[in-house]
Design a protein that fits this description.
281 residues, alpha/beta, seven-stranded parallel β-sheet, four-stranded mixed β-sheet, elongated
């Protein structure tokens, strides 16, 4: 008869330490955060020197044996746990049986500038962690070189933000806690054009594309979900650009607008000589 696998005790100090990472002050103190679910744990294992330990149910360990193997190969400690322990650590309603503890992965803002970025997303006043994570995912998909979260934005390591990024957190440099004025001036000094995304912007995204002005290195600054960008932040930009609404929708939500803006810049930068005009010759 095969012996039952040994499970980590719910009273273990490791479980208690992982549980505390659901709170921002503990994350900051320990410089650790949670990555929940198979996709996030796989991405963390592939990101050098990031994954510290993994808690996994017996069923999930069998289902995701390849991910558990990658975690071990990355040097992470793997703890078998029952579903109650996973639920205690996890911040989701329906945990997937796999939770990783990871070291912080943010990048110094100076390193981002030194890399001469061509496309950057700046989250200036974004407070919703789901939106922040989704914009990060959009930036990754569009091929952006970096994301900057200002000191007025949500915590990058909020579990909801990490989940919404769907692993993109581990794919591109992300700077955190940068004052918006410093972020804008640093990017300008690095030769990056600053575009503030605002529904009331003076400039139209379609016009910018048709004029061929979108092919230069650019940073898009995105504001708060409810009230957009304050006037003092808009004033820092080289242009304040609105996404045109051609139908009857009242507006676009933050993540959708960010995807449109970032892909517009990505398309323009990849086209020879900037974006092609859509005007018939």
């Amino acid at each position: 008869m095969t012996a039952a696998p040994e499970l980590i005790s719910p009273k273990s100090s490791r479980v208690s330490a992982a549980r505390r990472l659901g709170k921002r002050n503990f994350r900051g103190k320990e410089q650790l955060f949670l990555a929940e679910g198979p996709q996030a744990v796989r991405e963390a294992a592939a990101h050098a020197d990031t994954l510290v330990e993994v808690f996994v149910t017996v069923e999930a360990a069998e289902r995701y044996a390849d991910i558990v193997g990658e975690a071990r190969a990355a040097g992470a400690r793997v703890h078998l746990a029952d579903e109650d322990v996973i639920a205690d650590i996890s911040t989701t309603v329906t945990p997937q049986g796999l939770v990783g503890v990871c070291r912080f992965v943010d990048t110094p803002f100076e390193d981002i500038l030194a890399a001469k970025p061509r496309l950057v997303a700046v989250l200036a006043h974004v407070r919703d962690p789901g939106n922040a994570g989704t914009v990060l995912r959009c930036a990754d998909a569009a091929g952006a070189d970096a994301v900057v979260l200002t000191d007025a934005s949500v915590d990058l390591y909020n579990p909801k933000c990490v989940r919404a990024s769907v692993g993109s957190l581990f794919h591109l440099p992300v700077a955190v806690g940068v004052p918006v004025e410093r972020a804008v001036q640093g990017l300008k000094d690095a030769g990056v054009r600053i575009l503030a995304a605002d529904g009331a912007g003076e400039d139209d995204l379609d016009d910018e594309l048709d004029k061929g002005t979108m092919g230069t290195p650019s940073a898009w600054v995105f504001g708060n979900e409810a009230w957009g960008l304050p006037e003092e932040t808009r004033a820092l930009a080289d242009a304040v650009v609105r996404v045109p609404i051609h139908g009857r929708a009242e507006s676009l939500n933050l993540a959708t607008a960010a995807a449109v803006c970032l892909y517009a810049s990505a398309r323009a930068q990849r086209a020879a000589g900037g974006c092609r005009s859509v005007t018939p010759s």
